[in-house]
Every structure is written in C-alpha cells, then in structure tokens.
Amino acid sequence: MANVTLRDVRKTYAGGVEAIKGISLEVGDGQFCVLVGPSGCGKSTLLRMIAGLETITGGEIDIGERVVNNIEPADRDIAMVFQNYALYPHMSVYNNMAYGLRNRGMPKAAIDKRVRDAAQTLEIGALLDRKPRQLSGGQRQRVAMGRAIVRQPKVFLFDEPLSNLDAKLRIAMRVEIRKLQRRLRTTSVYVTHDQLEAMTLADILVVMNGGVVEQIGKPIEIYRRPETTFVASFIGAPPMNLLSLGSPSIGGVSGLPAAAGVVGVRPEDLSFGGSGAPSGGLALDLQVEAVERIGAETFVYGHHANAGEILVRVPGEAAPPIGEAVTAVAPRAKLHVFTGDGRRRIDI
Amino acid sequence: MVERRGIGDIVPHLVLWLGIAVVAFPVYLAFVASTQEAYLIANGQMSLLPGGKFLDNYYRTIFIGTSSSTREPVGTMLFNSFVMAMAISLGKIAISIISAYAIVYFRFPFRMAVFWLIFITLMLPVEVRIYPTYKIAADLSLLDSFAGLTLPLIASATATLLFRQFFMTVPDELLEASRIDGAGPIRFFKDTLLPLSRTNMAALFVILFIYGWNQYLWPLLITTRDNMQTIVIGIRKMITTSDALTEWPLVMATAMLAMLPPVAVVILMQKLFVRGLVETEK
User: Fold this and answer.
1) Among residues of chain B, what percentage have pLDDT more than 70?
2) pLDDT value at residue A76
3) What is the Cα–Cα distance from A113 to B150, expressed in whole angstroms?
4) What ipTM describes this predicted complex?
5) Could you tell me what percentage of chain A is helix, strand and coil, using 3-state DSSP and rounding each to the nearest 5?
6) Do A84 and B191 count as a contact with CB atoms less than 8 A apart?
7) What is the 8-class DSSP label of residue A348?
C-alpha cells in the first residue's frame, strides 16, 4: 500500500531530446491512475521511469514515502505487466509466477501458497504446468497478471496490457483488471492509448501530450470540462467538434469573452431542433453529407459553410436524409470555450 | 506434399538410391578392407564381402597399433581426438556465449570496437596466423599438451556472431521482466538466456565437434610426442611409410573408427540440431 508521487519529473535523452518535460503527479494509496495520450506522448517512458527501467534525469519519484530515483527496479516493490506479457518462454506457468519470489529467497511452501492462490484468483489453476506457447492470448495475459499479483507489491504498473487482445476479450479483461484492483486495493498506474479503457478504468486520469500533462482529474470531470482543445478532442468518442471563431458569424453564439478563440461542442450535445438557436446557444446550418446508423444511435456528418465538417450524434435511427439542409443546435451550457491557441478553457 | 504417381515417384527414389550408393560404397569398401588379411589387399585380391579378421584387426588397431609408423595404438589417438574435439567445441561455446552476452547486454566503452575486433578474426583463421600462433604456444610451453592443442582454436568469431544475432532477437521485455523479478545479470544469463539458447548451443556443438575432430594442420605442428597424436594425423602417418608394407586393414579400421564419434554426435544431437537451425523457442 503506497502513494506514488512525481515531482517535476524530467527525461532528457543523451541526444538532447526531451521526452518528459516536467511532470508532477500524485497517485493516492489504492488509486487506479491511467496515463493516456497519443503514441509518442511519453506515457510509456513515464511508466518505465516509475518502474526503474529508464533513468530519471530530473525531479523525483516517490513510492510509499521513499525517493526511488536511484533504486533498482527489483527493490522498488513494484510489479509490471508488459504489453507483450514478457513471459519466460522456457518456464512453466508456475515457474513464471514463482521466479520473482524465488529470487527473493522466499521459502518454498510460501511461494507455493501464493502461486496457487493467485492462480485460483485468475482461474488459471489448470494451466500451471503449461508453457507460455501452449496458452492463448487471454491466458497469457492472466499469467502476466498472476506474476504481478503473487509479488504482492506496493504498486502495479501496466504498460498497455490489453492491446494485443481481440476486442471482445479486451473488454472482458478490462472489467477483470478493475475488479481485481478494487479487491486488492493496490495502487496502480496504467498506460493506454485507448480512451475508452482510460475512461472506464481510472480513478484519476492523466491526459498527456508531447511530454507534458494536459489535464489531471476524474475521468468524468475531464469529459465534462476539458481544459484544453487537445483534451477536448482526445477524450470522448466520437471527438468533440471544434469551431474556430475566426469569422463572427459561426453559430450565432453571442456574449463570449474577448479571449475566446475556439468553441467546442460534443456530437452528443447537438440535436436537430426546429429553427433558431436557443438563447445564447449554438445553431449551425448544415448540409447533411453522410449518415452512419449503428443501431442505438446514429452519426450524422454535416457540412457547415465556414466551419467545415460537423458531427452530430442522435439517439435511435431517425436522421435527416442526405443532402438536406438542417440546423443543429446546442444549449449554451453545453458549449466549451477555449482561447485561440487552445491551451486554456474559458468559463462562460 | 506431392501426390504419389507412378513413374514420377520412382525417379526421385532412383536418384536418391544412386546418391546413397555413391556415398556409401567407399565406406562399405573401407569396412570390408578392415576385415581382410593384409596380404590379400596388397595383392589386389580383396573380396567385396567382409573377411574373417574383423575382431582380430580391430583389436590390433585399438590396443596395439601398427607395427612401424605410428608406434601408438589407435585407442590413444581416439582418446586424444575426442578430448581435443570436446575441449574445442565446449570451450568455443562457453567463450562465445559469454562474449556475445557482454556485447549485446552491457554498455561499456569501445563496445562496438570490441565487437569488430572479434568480427575481423573471421578473416584470420589459424592457417593464416600459423607462425605467430605457434611461437606464442611454444613460448608458453604449450607444445605437446592438450592446452596447446585446443586453446588457439577456441576463440571463435563465428560462434560469437551467432549468439549475438540470437540474443538480439530475444525481446528486451524479458530482460526488464527479469530485472523487476529481482534477477541480476548472472541470474538472467543462467535462468533465461542459457535455457533459451539450448538449441542454438546444440547445433553449434555438432558443427564445432566435427570441426575439432577434423583438425589436421595445427595438431601436426603442435604435437611431436607419439602419445599426443590425434587420429586424423595417425591415419595419414600410417600410409606414408615408404620402406614398409602399409597395413591396409589396420588403416581402414582406423578410418572406420575415426568416423564413429562424429557420426554418433550427429545422430544423437540430430533433433536438437535441426531445431536449433530452423526455429527458436520464443
């Protein structure tokens, strides 16, 4: 049980490339923290720095009130689940799980108990004598998790653990990881590029981009109040429509502060409602270009003369026919307003 | 799989049988000769069927030796050759796997320079540097010893290269997982890399054992005492006597005996050998 604290953590590679540009973060005891961002944003690097697999070139990382900057990975009391699982191919499932404990000189009987308990938890008891190559992807994933939980570490680190699984299994494992973490109450840091995984797993969500943190918060708060246009477009699927306020005629929203440069509106907050904007709200005149029906909801792609493509998400199957001119409206309370450079949110 | 179909099935078999005959007939002939009376061969009256002197000839070859040229029984030569081939192959594997481990997994100054130094020794086999190598061996008083026979042949760029290539295909995550599991460099080597290299080592062992067994030039230079002769040199010596009758049955028996250990190694290691060359256990 431990906190993980990052204080102005930096990573500069020998060539001068700065991968992590000063990140501060506090993950409370037993919390599930998800680092999310596009590929190359430094989220995996940050995780590997917490694990001790990458050196820290600036700042400090604490695990459980102890600065771990110069402590070997094995002595940081962490366990990591790798993207490709990194199971020892020549060892049986049992030995894969027991290896870390043996290296720490734990007595045989205690190892056996822990491995069997973990195997039971993960329902891989029948596989203990198999080699990793005799297992399916989902089973390997479980073994990798088992290898982490037998250690009973202070912190679990997950590096995109589900990205090698097929879609169906990924959802099932996602739920299981969450349940397991809730039960064990072990502080966890989880890296993913999948925003759905991020939203569903996280207690605290950290959105990263280009080596910096864009926003930290509860997933639903980040969804409701994105602080930057990057977060606004990254969190939420399909992504938020962002309208540049270059020409004043867009949407007819009035009374915006002078600093406002971009207005965002989520596809699910737009609707085709009668004519004219609700007071102070947004109204967009669109030409319907494409309609995607996926059953419970329908995506309507419309073209706006100044703003370009606008996506509207409506429940059910009813949608205007292609080619028709429609007006999409959103109440003022559902608008997100940002500065012109997209770096700051403005409350209206 | 190709379908079975009449003549198309027979032709490949004919070719194969022909090939087997071409390879196997001289071996058969050597075996037959090793079971005959010496004078029959000298007179050119050798039968194509095995003679009755099998036990007699092999007993003399292994425990007594030829009467004139080699002055040592072939048993000693077999032992020498076996020790030499084993030492060369095991030594080469041990040294190259360790040096490949250092080159792939450790960041030390001049790492690439070291790698290229090892690499260019490929261009300098013993035959090329025979004089300096002999000089060094002589100065270290390694002449007529197993150390002198094997050490200069042990350092090997090919094996180092092979292990390097193999280690580079081992995913980095395995090393990282080992580090998190509390395994230091030696444990990682022993618990993960060595077991993963098992089939590669087996394949290499087969190749190197035969390489060591067939050594001729170096043992010829480095050994002068009769009891240090290897079997390859022994055979050669047996048939170069100018003033005596070559004891062909014994020579052929020696040849047969010289063939056995490499064949045994290949047969015993065949399964691992093939796996080592075609697949990796990852």
Assistant:
1) 92
2) 92
3) 50
4) 0.84
5) 30, 30, 40
6) no
7) -
Contacts 24+ apart (CB under 8 A), A313-318: A313/A238, A313/A266, A313/A267, A313/A268, A313/A270, A314/A271, A314/A272, A317/A293
Give the chain A residue nearest B172 (alpha carbons). A86
Alpha-carbon dihedral of residues B3, B5, B8, B12, nearest 10 degrees? 60
- Could you report the per-residue pLDDT of A105-118, keeping only the tens digit for each? 999 999 999 999 99
Q: Which domains does chain B have, with CATH numbers?
A: 7-278 (1.10.3720.10)
N residues, chain B: 282
CA distance A82 to chain B (A): 7
Q: What is the pTM of this model?
A: 0.81
How far is the C-alpha of B165 from the C-alpha of B163, rounded, in Å?
5
Mutate to test the interface with A, among B180, B189, B199 (most CBs of A within 10 A): B180
d(CA A7, CA B261): 66
At A115-167, the pLDDT tens digits run: 999 999 899 999 999 999 999 988 999 999 999 999 999 999 999 999 888 88
Handedness of CA A209, A212, A218, A222 (dihedral sign): negative
From the candidates A103, A154, A159, which should be mutated to test the interface with B, based on the most B CB atoms within 10 A?
A103
Q: CA-to-CA distance for A63 and A50, rounded, in angstroms?
A: 8
Using a pLDDT cut of 90, give the percent of chain A over it: 65
Residue B276 has pLDDT above 80, yes or no: no
